[in-house]
Amino acid sequence: MNALVVSSISPTDEEMNRLKGLCISSLASQNYSIIESDLERENFNPCISLSDYPGVSEQSISQSQKKAYPNNYSVDILQEIEKIKQSDLIIIIAKLKFGILPTRLVGWMQRVFVLKFAIFSEDKYLHGKKIAFLIKTDGRDQEETETRTNKFIEDSFKSVCMKAFVPFYIHQDINEDLTREYLGNEISWLII
């Protein structure tokens, strides 16, 4: 089985990079082959634009015209779509900033999931796939932050008929045992 680990973490954020390493090693110990999308390292563009549709002019940007170009996407979107197609499990690792998800990650969710899978309804690629989140909070009101983040996640993935499991929130220091437990016990039953 393949696990896609998507992160939007600064290379200088030692704590979050440690969490990503913990996630990868925990999944590898469960015999997952790891595919990685490091949105910061790849300098992933979070903005939806006409450049997402090479060869489509502004005059032909209507919904009916877009449907004529369902596979004509920018290279970065096509690369991410291919990673998703190869994956059984998707783990998204993020650190909230001012109580919200990182811009690159939100852009990735919108450009890759919403653009490709919701607008063009290619959910056959998502059938049987599961998605889980490891989210480090920034110390703000935990309940409000979790409620708002859960709603955003649910709404984002509901549009592509994909089940997003309740995120694992880390409010203080990263507890390796609890993280491994989430990745082991909680995730292990997701893939059937």
Automatic annotation (TrEMBL):
Flavodoxin-like fold domain span: 4-172
SUPFAM superfamilies, alphabetized: Flavoproteins (SSF52218)
Keywords: Oxidoreductase
A GO MF label: NAD(P)H dehydrogenase (quinone) activity
Gene Ontology CC terms: cytosol
Record keyword Transferase present: no
InterPro entries to which the protein is assigned, alphabetical: Flavodoxin_fold, Flavoprotein-like_sf, NAD(P)H_dehydrogenase_qn
Family recorded in the similarity comment: Belongs to the NAD(P)H dehydrogenase (quinone) family.
PANTHER family: NAD P H OXIDOREDUCTASE-RELATED, NAD(P)H DEHYDROGENASE [QUINONE] 1 ISOFORM 1
Protein name, UniProt field: Flavodoxin-like fold domain-containing protein
Organism per entry: Stentor coeruleus
